[in-house]
Write a structure and sequence with these properties.
- By secondary structure, this protein is α/β, with parallel strands linked by helices.
- The protein has 2 domains: 134 residues, Aspartate/ornithine carbamoyltransferase (Rossmann fold); 155 residues, Rossmann fold, CATH 3.40.50.
- The protein has 11 helices and 9 strands.
- A 5-stranded parallel beta sheet has the order 7-6-5-8-9.
- The relative contact order is 0.16.
- Bound molecules: N-carbamoyl-L-aspartate (NCD).
- N-carbamoyl-L-aspartate binds next to helix 2 and helix 6.
C-alpha cells in the first residue's frame, strides 16, 4: 500500500506516467467514468479549503466513486480530543482512500503510519502540499512542454507557503531549473529548503523586488501571505500587500511567461491581470482535478 506525503514519494518516471494518465483522462473523461465504481474517498479536512477538497471529491465522483468526510476540525471528533491516529484507524474501516489536510506539520505522516488505506497529504501546516505540486507540474508541462531549463520565480510567502516547498522539491529533480526566490526578509524560504536546493547544485537567488525578476522569468508562481500561520496580526497586516502583481509589472515580463497561483488569491494579483493571456491560474485548477483522478487510480492500483 502506498501513500503520497511529499512529492518525492513518486519517482520522476511515476510522475511522468501520472501526468500522461491525467492527460488521457482529460482527453476522454467518459472512458474513465466508472473505473472507481464502488470505491469511497474520505476527505478529512481539519483546515479550510475550497479547491483541494472539492477537487478530490470531484475527481472521485467523476471516476464513478463516492465521497464522505468533514470540512472543519470542529465538526469531527477532533473537537472531542480524538487523535489523528485513532481517526484514521476508524476511517480505514469505512473508506478505500483518504485525503487529509491538517494544520500540524507531519500529521499526515502520523496518519499514514496508522492507516490501512492509502493516505494523501492534502496539506500539512506550513510543510508540504504534494497534490498542489502535481497540479503545478501538470500545468507547467502542458503549457511550457518541459521543466528543464526553466527560470521560475516564486513570490510572496516562501516561509509558510507549503505549495512552494513542495514545488521546489519536485522541480529540483529536473535539469537546469533556476529559482528566483522573491520575498520580504521575514518570509524567506526556510533554511532546510535552501539546503535542499544547495545539495542539488541548482542555481538560485533570493531577492526582494519583483520587478527585478520579471524580465527573466518563464514562470511566475505567486502566493498568498499565509495569515493563519502568523503569530501576530500586526506582522500580517504589515506584509500582506508587500507584492501586488499588476499590469505595469506584467509589461516587464516575456510574452510567453506564465503566471501561476495555487489560489486562493487575496490581493497579490490585481484582478486586471486575469484577462492577460499569460495568467493561467484558473486553468491550473482544472489540471488539478485530472491529476487527482490519475492519482486516485494509481494509489488504488486501478490500471488506466
Ligand atoms: C494552498 C494551500 O492550502 O496551501 N491552497 C490550495 O490548496 N490550493 C495555498 C494557500 O492556501 O495559500
Amino acid at each position: 500500500m502506498r501513500h503520497l506525503l511529499t512529492p518525492l514519494d513518486l519517482s520522476v518516471d511515476e510522475l511522468e506516467k501520472l501526468m500522461d494518465d491525467a492527460a488521457k483522462i482529460k482527453a476522454d473523461p467518459e472512458k474513465y467514468a466508472h473505473v472507481c465504481d464502488g470505491k469511497i474517498i474520505a476527505t478529512l479536512f481539519y483546515e479550510p479549503s475550497t479547491r483541494t477538497r472539492l477537487s478530490f471529491e470531484a475527481a472521485m465522483l467523476r471516476l464513478g466513486g463516492k465521497t464522505m468526510g468533514f470540512a472543519t476540525a470542529d465538526s469531527s471528533s477532533a473537537a472531542k480530543g480524538e487523535s489523528v491516529a485513532d481517526t484514521i484507524r476508524i476511517i480505514s474501516c469505512f473508506a478505500d482512500i483518504a485525503a487529509m489536510r491538517h494544520p500540524k506539520e507531519g500529521s499526515t505522516t502520523v496518519a499514514a503510519s496508522h492507516a490501512l488505506i492509502p493516505v494523501i497529504n492534502a496539506g500539512d501546516g506550513g510543510h508540504q502540499h504534494p497534490t498542489q505540486t502535481l497540479t503545478d507540474l501538470m500545468t507547467i508541462r502542458s503549457l511550457k512542454g518541459t521543466f528543464n531549463g526553466m527560470t521560475i520565480g516564486l513570490c510572496g510567502d516562501l516561509k509558510f507557503g507549503r505549495t512552494v516547498h513542495s514545488l521546489i522539491r519536485a522541480l529540483l529533480r529536473y535539469k537546469d531549473v533556476r529559482f528566483i526566490l522573491i520575498s520580504p526578509d521575514e518570509l524567506k524560504l526556510p533554511d532546510y529548503m535552501i539546503d535542499e536546493i544547495k545539495k542539488t547544485g541548482a542555481e538560485y537567488e533570493e531577492i526582494t523586488k519583483l520587478e527585478d525578476a520579471m524580465p527573466r522569468l518563464d514562470i511566475l508562481y505567486m502566493t498568498r501571505v499565509q495569515r493563519e500561520r502568523f503569530f501576530n496580526e500586526e506582522d500580517y497586516v504589515r506584509l500582506k500587500d508587500f507584492y501586488i502583481l499588476d499590469m505595469p509589472k506584467m509589461e516587464l515580463a516575456k510574452d510567453d511567461m506564465i503566471v501561476l497561483h495555487p489560489l486562493p488569491r487575496v490581493n497579490e494579483i490585481a484582478v486586471e491581470v486575469d484577462s492577460d493571456p499569460r495568467a493561467r491560474y484558473f486553468e491550473q485548477v482544472q489540471y488539478g482535478m485530472y491529476i487527482r483522478m490519475a492519482l486516485i487510480c494509481m494509489l488504488l492500483e486501478i490500471e488506466i
